[in-house]
Design goal:
Elements: H1 5-35, E1 44-45, H2 50-90, H3 94-144, E2 151-157, E3 163-170, E4 173-179, E5 195-198, E6 203-204, E7 209-210, H4 213-232, E8 238-243, E9 248-250, E10 260-262, H5 264-272, H6 280-294, E11 295-297
Parallel strand pairs: 4-8, 5-9, 8-10
Antiparallel strand pairs: 1-11, 2-3, 3-4, 5-6, 6-7
Helix pairs in contact: 1-2, 2-3, 3-5
Length: 299
């Protein structure tokens, strides 16, 4: 069997753009790191959904990488199929034919797996983007209540792998806000598609049940209370709230639940309606403690 230069050049041409792009990106990243510096050394406060935005960018990079791998495997699978066809036509030795078939199967399976992984990560990116938009929607509400003396912090880092979505601080208290963004889907239990039923412990959506949101808000509020108490040297009570943008929450008004649940549109009125419970000097100390930990974004 003979390979002509024209056939080989086709496969080189198919792979060359991907290889050239990968090399150019690697060189550009290295050069930027070595030659560029930020215009200011002061770090910035975390914006709404900062952790989710990083996860979204990382997921998109992985998707592009998976697509590139799938393309490479597909090209190699095509070359392997070409070899198998030529081996069969030339009545090549059985060992050579089996090797070519093995390579063909490996490249086909590798391309399929890479494509499936890219698809799964696309679904993951969609969910991350939904969560990001939910946090941005709540952040808009918190900006609106700045005229009531509230200061908002977003994506407050609690540890190496978790964060608090929002913290609102003012004379009316310290409020921890966990955002739960969910898509609307067809109801499975006869419940209205826009309604979430809340009983103080469980969020019942029309198609699923969430039992983790309330304990998470309580756990994070307790952690934040301990953190601020240690930083300021005085007791700090943190009130947890679960916010579901775009949903009507049914049941929160039936009991004095320790964790409130509401939609984003109701949040502003709820916070404005709270009575003053913290003196301005303590508010300033709490804000300073939050600012110190939340200001870690490189320019």
């Amino acid at each position: 069997m003979k390979f002509d230069f024209g056939t080989i050049s086709v496969w080189i041409a198919a792979l060359a753009p991907l290889l050239a792009l990968a090399g150019a990106l690697a060189i550009d990243k290295r050069n930027r790191k070595a030659t560029e510096k930020p215009p200011q050394s002061e770090k910035l406060l975390r914006p709404p959904g900062y952790s989710l935005a990083i996860r979204f960018d990382e997921t998109i990079d992985k998707i592009l990488w998976d697509i590139g791998i799938a393309c490479c495997f597909s090209a190699f699978a095509g070359a392997s199929a070409y070899c198998v066809a030529n081996f069969l036509a030339a009545r090549a030795p059985m060992f050579a034919l089996l090797v070519a078939i093995v390579f063909l199967v490996v490249f086909v399976l590798g391309g399929i797996l890479a494509a499936l992984r890219a698809f799964a990560r696309m679904r993951e990116a969609q969910n991350i983007r939904l969560g990001l938009r939910g946090e941005q929607a709540v952040a808009e509400v918190l900006y609106e209540i700045g005229d009531s003396g509230f200061r908002a912090f977003h994506d407050f880092p609690g540890g190496d792998n978790w964060n608090i979505d929002h913290v609102a601080v003012g004379n009316r208290g310290v409020f921890l806000i966990e955002t739960k963004a969910r898509r609307r889907r067809k109801s499975r239990n006869g419940q209205a598609e826009h309604v979430v039923i809340y009983d103080g412990e469980t969020l019942r959506f029309p198609y699923c049940v969430n039992r983790r949101a309330v304990p998470q808000a309580q756990r994070n509020a307790k952690w934040l209370s301990n953190y601020l108490t240690k930083k300021t040297g005085e007791p700090v009570d943190v009130k947890p709230i679960v916010v579901l943008p775009g949903w009507f929450v049914d049941g929160d008004n039936r009991g004095n639940f320790p964790v409130k649940a509401m939609n984003a549109a109701y949040l502003a009125g709820y916070l404005r309606g709270q009575g003053e419970s913290i003196e301005p000097p303590q508010v300033r100390r709490i804000i300073a403690a939050l600012d110190e930990k939340c200001r870690d974004v490189e320019f």
